[in-house]
Structure formats: C-alpha cells, structure tokens
Amino acid sequence: MIDFMLSIFSSALGMDMRDHHDIPFALPLLMACFVGGIVGFTIIRFIGNEQKEDAKQATIKNTDR
User: Fold this and answer.
1) Under a CB-based contact definition with an 8 Å cutoff, are residues 23 and 17 in contact?
2) Which residues contact 16 (CB under 8 A, 6 or more apart)?
3) Which residues have C-beta within 8 Å of that of residue 9, sequence separation ≥ 6?
4) pLDDT tens-digit map of 5-51
5) Which sign, positive or negative, has the C-alpha torsion 40, 42, 48, 50?
C-alpha cells in the first residue's frame, strides 16, 4: 500500500518519493495533512449520515406510539 501511494505521489509531483535526496523537508508533512484531511472528511461524512438515519428512526418510533 505504501508503494502504491508513493507511486501516485511520485507521478503527481514529478519527483521520486523513494529517494530521500529528492524530497523537500516539508513535503512529507504536506502529504500527511492532505491524506489526513481526506480521511477526516470521509469519516465526518459517514458520521453525519449515521446521525441522519438515527434521527429518522427516532422519529418513526415516536410516531408509532
């Protein structure tokens, strides 16, 4: 998986990500922020969907009484 991600970033940025001489100092930090942002956004989207479903189920239970 790491090799797959490195190959994607290598092609996107135009530099060999496996060679430590070719990577600027801040680039790993930027990659971590980018990947963390995507993962965080995905998790927040799923949590929001679950809360909407729970609210619908609670509404249905309250109307059945």
Assistant:
1) yes
2) 10, 22
3) 17, 31
4) 778 877 877 777 777 666 676 677 778 888 999 999 988 888 777 77
5) negative
